[in-house]
Amino acid sequence: MEIAIIAHDGKKAEMVQFLNAHSDILHQKQISLVSTGTTGEKVLKAGFKVNALLSGPLGGDAQIASRVAEGKCNMVLFFRDPLDRHPHEPDVLMLMRLCDVHDVPLATNPATAELLIKAV
Ligand SMILES: O=C(CO)COP(=O)(O)O
């Protein structure tokens, strides 16, 4: 299955920690990761295999939304930073809306991501 991982700047370190804590599940369940660009760079540096798309503000969230709509992406783990401003907020809303349209599990914080990854 394919899981999308996205983290706003203030949450990227937490995303790497999260993946390290759950690396066993990622391997055992043969999960392929797709991500927005800068999140992907950090995750690659931490030693994970990931298909890094465009950076979020340049269309990365929209690319992941497209994968959700096409049935290619089965889960989205999005560590949002609600205390920061994001010029591409419309893309973020589109991604969340398409997860709802296509009934794709979406976590918008680490606590929910923890529950979802354990259910894989
Ligand atoms: O902006 C983002 C999510 O909306 C994340 O994008 P990056 O991973 O490229 O920073």
UniProtKB/TrEMBL annotation:
Pfam families of this UniProt entry?
MGS
Q: What is this protein called?
A: Methylglyoxal synthase
Does Lyase count among this protein's keywords? yes
Any keyword Transcription regulation?
no
- InterPro entries tied to this protein: Methylgl_synth, Methylglyoxal_synth_AS, MGS-like_dom
**Which residues are responsible for catalysis?**
61 (proton donor/acceptor)
Q: Which residues bind substrate?
A: 8, 12, 36-39, 55-56, 88
User: Example GO molecular function term?
Assistant: methylglyoxal synthase activity
Q: What are the EC numbers? A: 4.2.3.3
The catalytic activity, as recorded, is:
dihydroxyacetone phosphate = methylglyoxal + phosphate
Origin species: Winogradskyella luteola
* All copies of domain MGS-like, residue ranges: 1-120
A GO BP term here is: methylglyoxal biosynthetic process
Q: Name the HAMAP family for this protein.
A: Methylglyoxal_synth
Q: Which UniProt keywords apply?
A: Lyase
- An annotated GO cellular component: cytosol
Q: What does this protein do?
A: Catalyzes the formation of methylglyoxal from dihydroxyacetone phosphate.
Name the protein family.
Belongs to the methylglyoxal synthase family.
